[in-house]
Amino acid sequence: MGDEVVRRAMNATATAALRNGIARVLPAPRRLRSGLPAVALAAPAAAWIVAVAALALLGQAAYHPFMTPADLSLSEAAATRDHLEMLRQIRGGASLDTPARVRSGLVRQGEYVLTPLEAAVASGQVDTVQFLQHHGARMDATTVAGLICLADVQEDREMSAYLKGQAPPALAVDCDSVRLPWSD
Amino acid sequence: MVGLTSPRVVAIVLATLITLPLAASLYQVPIQVSDSLEPIVIATTAASVGQLMADAPRFSPTTLRPMRYVQARWLLNSVEATGVSYRAVFRGVHVALLMLLIALFVIAVRVRTWTDLAAFTVAFPVLIGIHTFAAMLFEAFPVNHYAEVGVCALGILVLAQQPPRSYVPAIACALLAFALSVVESGALVWIVVIGCAAARMRGITRSTVIATTLLIVGYFLVRHSLGISSPGIGGMGSGFGATFYSADALKARFGEHPLGFMAYNVASGLLSLLLSEPRTGVYGTAIWWKTGTLHPVLVVNVVSSAITTIVIGWYAVRRLRVGRAAWSDADRAFTVCCLVILVNASLTAAYIKDEIISVGGLFYAVAAFIAFRELLASMPARSLAASAAMALTLVLTAGLWTFRDLGVHYQLRYDAFKLRNDWAEVLRPDTRENWPRDPTVLALTRRIRDEAIAVRTASPSFMPRWGDRWWIE
To answer: What is the ipTM of this complex?
Structure first.
């Protein structure tokens, strides 16, 4: 019975081939019968959108993928040139001269405890040093020598020249007697 | 009655899910010092709205933007009346404009079937991710006028899709008048009216065309009588090849023979819309050629835009070669989109900025939706292999555009940090001689600055370092 069906089908195909020409005998491409598969194939795009939206909504709720940590220290704000954040913390009573934690990767690898001025010098930002000075950071004979030595260790000539310009005229800088957060 | 699982409702939910976080990112941006503080000060010191209107022609020899200052004044008044912060009012308006743009886009594309929805999932990321849309979010003067023009232009397109109504001419004139009074690109609203009428979209009647044409003719007559000219070369900096030139450098280099540079700008403006390259007239590909450094952001932007533009071109060839009488509603809307893109590109003749071509970017996204829908609808008649290849290409394209969308969040945070830090230079304790002498202006400046200090923004130092290479050109 099955062989008979196959035989009739082959005969029908051969007859059609004779009637329509040899080109039609070639196997026809499989065709989609409705628009649904197309929609299903485009579904990953929708999934992309939902995933991104969910990520962004999470960011607004609790997990902050693109947000500054809430416990940012004044020294960290100085290291990242976040002047307005520094101003916000100064207004909130933060001390301009107190050393504080600076997370790894902000000035260099490894966590350090630095004053805001040290953090600004370590990250090579003269304008942040000036900003801190204008708001009352202590830069006198006891602090400036350490800053100059830190700038020299960093090989930051511009910073070093600026700090030397701020130092008292008679100040003799001896970097061997200054304790630096790092020496390489 | 529309069911909760209808394609239209799903499209609205998707758009809302994408837009709300974007609105939150936008709201974090403080009022900017450049471009915003000056008009706010002008608006607050003027004796009345009437005086602002009268003084508007004197603010610049090349612009006539009275509503720029008047709406700033209205917003300042609303701060006084409600007691809320300046940021809440000014950024609140910006967020409202964003919502309006999204809502009008959703209405304009008319998602009705599941195939429409599939096209929407690709076209909506195009709308948000194209660099010209981001330009509507980054800048404010103190309100983003290009976003306002975009709302007006899309509003006309939506009106044109409806049956003719008696009130349409009045609304079209109001939208055109408002758009023209905030920025010169408002003339694009008239282009949309003319395009809709030429494409025989049913909502725009002859009376609308006549009324808006009279209005724009009147506008140019007023400009002429006030002696306001168009900005020429050297008014703003712009790019050429691989280099960005300052206004003075442009004048020195092209001032004597400007036509070639203008043609370059128009062609570059069009290419920027179609391929996301160049940006502000500077070709990233030329920089790549010169330096050998290829940034991933350039690849993502150009590939996503190129695929989208190819689909748009395919649609144009397939559908528009038949006579206008045989066009469908989608064909008519598509034609208007193409016209707006072309005319918008021509507005970049003197210099290129992303903002100038931002309205064209909106219509590019509408055209992309129409083209993607046609492509999806044609898939059942294609072979399985062809359909699969197309679907994979669409998924890749949607993925790239969605990646660009995420970059808008990154850039907005970057922008917020930069703009907030700009306030460090205002009212500096060591430069008291530069502080405003007028007590009202000083109090206003101090209050806006205090708001900027109080609201924390994300520091780029705490954002993924790879973001610069993948999202910022």
So the answer is: 0.81
Average pLDDT on A157-179 reads: 86
Taking CB atoms and an 8 Å cutoff, what residues of chain A touch B454?
88
Mutate which of B9, B462, B463, B471 to test chain A, going by most A C-beta atoms within 10 A? B462
Is B387 within 8 Å of A44 when comparing Cβ atoms? Answer: no
Beta bridge partners of A100: A114
What are the tens digits of pLDDT across the range B172-199? 999 999 999 999 999 999 999 999 999 9
Residue at A92 is within a domain: yes
Please indicate, yes or no, if residue A44 is contained in any of the structural domains: no
Asked if B453 reaches chain A (Cβ–Cβ under 8 Å), the answer is: yes
Kindly give the parts of chain B with pLDDT less than 50: none
Asked whether residue B104 is domain-assigned, the answer is: yes
Domain membership of residue B162 as a residue range: 18-231+400-471
Residues on chain B touching A128 (C-beta within 8 angstroms): none
Contact between B48 and B113 (Cβ < 8 Å): no
A62 and chain B in contact, CB less than 8 A: no
- Beta-carbon contacts of residue B194 (< 8 Å; ≥ 6 apart): B209, B213
CATH of the domain at A140: 1.25.40.20
Supply the pTM of this predicted model: 0.88
Residue B386 is predicted with a pLDDT of 87
DSSP, res B163: P
Residues in Cβ contact with B149 at an 8 Å cutoff, skipping those fewer than 6 apart = B179, B182, B183, B185, B186, B188, B189, B359
Taking an 8 Å cut-off on Cβ atoms, the answer to whether B17 and A57 are in contact is: yes
Residue B144 carries which DSSP code? -
Is pLDDT above 70 for A63?
A: no
Q: What is the mean pLDDT of residues A43-60?
A: 62
> Strand pairing partners for B245?
B238
State how many domains chain B has: 1
Q: For residue A124, tell me if it sits in a domain.
A: yes
Q: Quote the pLDDT of residue A23.
A: 40
Closest approach of B432 to chain A, Cα-based (Å)? 12
Each residue's pLDDT tens digit, B254-279: 888 889 999 999 999 999 999 999 99
Tokens of B205: 């009647």
> What pLDDT is recorded for position B298?
95
Which conformational region is residue A80 in: left (phi greater than 0), alpha (psi within -120 to 50 degrees), or beta?
A: alpha
Residue of chain B whose alpha carbon sits nearest to that of A47: B121
